[in-house]
Design a protein that fits this description.
Blueprint lengths: L1 H32 L16 H28 L6 E2 L6 H27 L2 H12 L14 H7 L2 H6 L4 E2 H18 L22 H10 L10 H6 L6 H9 L13
Parallel strand pairs: 1-2
Length: 261
């Protein structure tokens, strides 16, 4: 029991630290320090309520406890049954690069279809609505899930660990990348340059504008890292390109925008 508790606490502390470091840093940078000069890049021209921040942090801490528990059972208790390896030379550089692409595509696919499932009316009303209470998301929204949804979200861990061989440190780096991109997706500010969404690469990349529209409109734009599934399944919101354009240009304001306060 003591070993379980020690490993669980270590795992939970790492996840909590990542959440507060990246969400907190993004919040301070964009919602305090650079709020006025970058206001033209604020997707919804208003700030979330203080109650939104508190609710998101509370549910995020619950999610972290669930993430840590699943991580323990998969990466520690069930480690011998996984396909994780530590000797980099076992598979080489080419496979290492491929494994990153594999994890990103697998996670994006898992997220897209589970996300759409969560929008089934009964599941949305009783589970996913917790995440959607933040119609104007902030960095703190990144892990704000109902406990059941947190279990679904962390299902990607065993899915990765029990499929193709993955370099163990790469898995840790991948989930570090995941929280960074998740915070960006809920940032409320767009960081990609103007017209990025129309480039041959950018048209397939999920952006903060895309995910913000999902929170604001409640449907469409279900992807995580990419827009492959949204484009293929016809779930990309029709106003996406227009909103991206108006958000990333300094000139012109959308009708109904309010001044920064």
């Amino acid at each position: 029991m003591s070993t379980f508790l020690e490993i669980w606490l270590r795992s939970a502390s790492h996840i909590v630290l990542r959440y507060f470091v990246f969400a907190g840093s993004a919040f301070f940078l964009f919602y305090v320090l650079l709020k006025q000069p970058l206001w033209f890049r604020k997707i919804q021209k208003k700030m979330p309520e203080l109650s939104d921040y508190g609710r998101d942090i509370m549910y995020s801490l619950i999610s972290v406890s669930i993430f840590a528990s699943v991580a323990f059972f998969v990466l520690f208790a069930g480690r011998e049954y996984t396909h994780l390896y530590r000797d980099f030379e076992s598979y080489g550089l080419a496979y290492y690069i491929f494994s990153w692409l594999w994890m990103m595509v697998l996670h994006d696919t898992w997220f897209y279809w589970m996300h759409r499932l969560m929008h089934y009316p009964v599941l949305f009303k009783h589970i996913h609505l917790i995440h959607h209470k933040s119609t104007n998301p902030s960095p703190w929204t990144a892990y704000a899930f109902h406990p059941f949804e947190a279990i679904v979200e962390v299902g990607i861990v065993p899915l990765i660990a029990f499929t193709l061989p993955i370099h163990a440190p790469a898995l840790g780096l991948f989930f570090l990348f995941q929280i960074i991109y998740n915070v960006y997706g809920h940032l409320g500010f767009e960081l990609y340059p103007q017209n990025f969404n129309k480039t041959c690469v950018g048209k397939w990349i999920n952006t903060s504008v895309a995910h913000n529209l999902h929170h604001k409109k409640f449907t469409g734009n279900y992807g995580l890292y990419f827009l492959f599934w949204d484009r293929m399944m016809g779930t990309l919101r029709p106003e996406y390109d227009e909103v991206f354009q108006t958000t990333t240009q300094r000139e012109g304001k959308r009708v109904g925008d309010t001044e920064v306060v």
